[in-house]
Inverse folding.
């Protein structure tokens, strides 16, 4: 006999199933709200994501977790075997399967910049891996997780720790030079961020200007697409390169060239470096003008972005983030911008940087704010060290009023017997101690440059000078030149016997420091008399006095010891 009606048991089970479905439907909305609140859901579509990422993050559904576990185990096996290039592909897949888990981006970027980079033999390969780690966070992690402060913090930290001027990586000078060479075409020599911030954002806006259409048409007459070849003129061939450069330097198209250059440079900053010129300008307005060719301003930019994101996060979620580390990183970046403020010269063995004295009040203020925010002892030793550096550096560069001002702050904030002596006596003792015992050679290099620079300034700006730049130099200038040579001999004694060091750790020639000091002196003249008049004055001075001639090509560092013998 065939049963046509459901049994009592089947009816009961069906009723229970329907009840459970209805109950689940009732709780679905509050559950989704909680998932959104605690960021546990992937229901929102990824913004600006390529199709393959969207497909990979949704198609597998519940099997995605199993796939990720397998890929992680495989990646660990390959890492143990040293097969780094295969690991990168696995990391790429893992990131695409879980694009919203910030720890995945942090881990994979760390692996590339640290664990993999140190295993490759050449500085060029190391730089590529470090840059790959930076791109992993900057180009992808932050793009898909724009509200994660951890990603901004880690990005800023990698820049500071691997590329920064105080990095412990043996090839840090090479990385810094690479960064400079990549940034010069974008920020330009004068680093005028205002014109980049004001530039049009799209090609259609650019071509609305009739004169710009005519200008670009001049390139097109010679089959040159200047919009795509602006940064790679050499690839056009010798003849087209000469034509393009002639048009780019033509006085007839000066206004159009500036507008075109600003648009293309701003576009590249946004697309390749993910940095907004208006935000870069805002950082300068908050602190002071920065040298964007150096690592510290980049780190500060991303640290500032991360702090803004952190401030907008609900209070109940902030416990996931170490706010102290964010403040500390911002302060470290500012401190480095003071000590290594501007790249004055670059040679075969890295950069010569001089302090950025304009940022001193901002750094001092952030130290005070951090100590007030956390506790009175937090960062005090670093603050004292910073004030010490301000006093020594200001004094050595001839800014005695600034040195005295911060020496009084140092005495008041950190009352110690060592600070009870007069400023002159204190600086002489401290400089001697630094030169003899301090482990960072940058300090001695900065002292050598500042001493030579002050000698030149004593000749140019001292109204009682005797025999401008001739044999009969002023006593003050002669004394400073002698002091520079004493410092240089001490520098050679400490650095010259390091035969096992790589090429970037070996000492530089005295001529290299002299050229760096001349560049500093030229900037001083231009700042004192204005760009046009200052350039004219410098040209006349350098033509008249051979001692003031700047060697335009990069000075060689190859003969430090032989140069010392000649001097």
């Amino acid at each position: 006999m065939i049963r046509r009606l459901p049994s009592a048991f089947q009816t009961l089970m069906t009723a229970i199933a329907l009840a459970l479905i209805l109950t689940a439907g009732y709780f679905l909305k509050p559950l989704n709200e909680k998932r959104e609140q605690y960021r546990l859901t992937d229901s929102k579509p990824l913004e600006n994501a390529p199709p393959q990422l969207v497909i990979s993050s949704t198609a597998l559904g519940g099997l995605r977790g199993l796939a990720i576990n397998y890929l992680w185990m495989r990646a660990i096996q390959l890492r143990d075997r040293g097969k780094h290039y295969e690991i990168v592909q696995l990391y790429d897949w893992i990131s695409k399967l879980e694009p919203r888990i910030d720890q995945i981006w942090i881990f994979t970027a760390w692996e590339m910049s640290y664990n993999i980079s140190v295993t490759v033999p050449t500085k060029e390969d190391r730089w590529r891996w470090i840059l790959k780690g930076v791109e992993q966070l900057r180009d992808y992690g932050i793009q898909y997780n724009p509200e994660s402060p951890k990603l901004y913090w880690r990005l800023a930290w990698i820049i500071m720790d691997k590329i920064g001027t105080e990095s412990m990586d043996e090839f840090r000078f090479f990385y810094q030079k690479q960064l400079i060479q990549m940034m010069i075409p974008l920020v330009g020599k004068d680093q005028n961020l205002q014109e980049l911030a004001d530039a049009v954002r799209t090609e259609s806006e650019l071509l609305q200007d009739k004169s710009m259409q005519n200008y670009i048409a001049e390139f097109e007459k010679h089959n040159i697409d200047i919009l795509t070849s602006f940064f790679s003129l050499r690839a056009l061939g010798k003849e087209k390169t000469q034509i393009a450069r002639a048009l780019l330097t033509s006085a007839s198209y000066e206004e159009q060239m500036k507008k075109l250059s600003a648009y293309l440079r701003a576009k590249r900053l946004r697309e390749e470096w993910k940095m907004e010129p208006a935000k870069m300008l805002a950082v300068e307005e908050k602190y002071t003008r920065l040298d964007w060719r150096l690592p510290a301003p980049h780190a500060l930019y991303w640290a500032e972005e991360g702090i803004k994101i952190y401030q907008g996060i609900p209070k109940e979620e902030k416990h996931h983030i170490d706010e102290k580390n964010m403040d500390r990183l911002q302060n470290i970046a500012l401190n480095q911008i003071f000590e290594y403020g501007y790249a004055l010269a670059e040679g075969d063995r890295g950069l010569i940087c001089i302090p950025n004295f304009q940022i001193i009040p901002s750094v001092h203020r952030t130290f005070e704010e951090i100590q007030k925010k956390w506790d009175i002892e937090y960062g005090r030793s670093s603050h004292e060290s910073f004030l010490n550096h301000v006093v020594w550096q200001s004094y050595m560069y001839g800014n005695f009023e600034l040195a005295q001002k911060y020496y009084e702050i140092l005495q008041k904030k950190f009352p110690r017997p060592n600070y009870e002596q007069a400023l002159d006596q204190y600086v002489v003792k401290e400089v001697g101690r630094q030169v003899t015992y301090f482990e960072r050679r940058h300090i001695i290099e900065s002292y050598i440059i500042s001493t030579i620079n002050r000698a030149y300034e004593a000749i140019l700006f001292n109204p009682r000078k005797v025999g401008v730049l001739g044999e009969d130099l002023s006593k003050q200038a002669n004394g400073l030149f002698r002091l520079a040579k004493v410092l240089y001999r001490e520098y050679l004694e400490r650095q010259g016997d390091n035969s096992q060091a790589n090429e970037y750790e070996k000492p530089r020639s005295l001529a290299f420091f002299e050229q760096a000091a001349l560049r500093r002196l030229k900037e001083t003249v231009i700042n004192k008399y204005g760009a046009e008049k200052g350039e004219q004055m410098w040209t006349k001075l350098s033509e008249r006095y051979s001692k003031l001639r700047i060697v335009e090509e990069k000075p060689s560092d190859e003969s430090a010891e032989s140069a010392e013998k000649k001097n």
Remarks:
- Residues 123 and 171 are 6 Å apart (CA to CA).
